[in-house]
Amino acid sequence: MSVSTEASLAKLFRLLDGSVGVLMQHNGRDKAMSAVYYSLLFCAGRINCANTTDKLMTLAKQFSSARIILRRFNDLPLIGANFIHFIHPPSDENDRICYDLQTAINVLYTIYSPIEHVAWLSDLKLLPFNASKWSKYSLFVWTSSLILSIVRSALLLLRMQVESKTFEEEDARKRLADKKKEELLNILSFSLDFLNAVNFLPYKGFFWAQSFPLWTTGLFGFLASCINLIKLYRAVK
């Protein structure tokens, strides 16, 4: 076996190993299903064949339902993440704003989960509530959390930009550059999700609400999902 072939196989193995590591995680499977779901929406919006579009949308709904069911098990991890967050307050006052923003984000996601529980059970006719109304509430909470997430990542990026001017060691600069790339990916992912979140709002005429064609929603969601998968892949390598 040639050296180039061995190198190619080693790269393939690392890619496979990293992909398995991502899909072994709950978040990795969720983002993978999200990528498939939004890619189906994109294809359904671009294909000019009603029969094919209906089939793609039927398949997309299955992936959406699977993600909704998986999210029903998010409550305990959310409680655990909140507990860890609250017992580790920042020692530096410069970190306080970002910490408080993360606290608000955590609270919003903690609120989001039971609201979506009610919406899901109401949609299944197991609770006597208006499923559309509760879905709207969950959408408001999600949109709010995305706004705060964008602001937090932007503040972190700005602070790292200032700090980079004070670092002289090459290793420290490299670590900071990696963190900056991570926050840039976060901002891009949150922004793409925010574009879709506003579009999903049931108020036509409010900014771009209800104005995106199906393929645009699919494209933005697919890109956001892929960014999150890339971040997870880099984390497990």
UniProtKB/TrEMBL annotation:
Transmembrane segments: 214-233
Gene Ontology terms: cellular component: peroxisomal membrane
Primary location class: membrane
Keyword tRNA-binding: no
Family matches, as InterPro entries: PEX11, PEX11C_met
Keyword set, alphabetical order: Membrane, Peroxisome, Transmembrane, Transmembrane helix
Pfam families membership: PEX11
Subcellular compartments: Peroxisome membrane
Swiss-Prot/TrEMBL GO biological process terms: peroxisome fission
Stated name of the protein: Peroxisomal membrane protein 11C
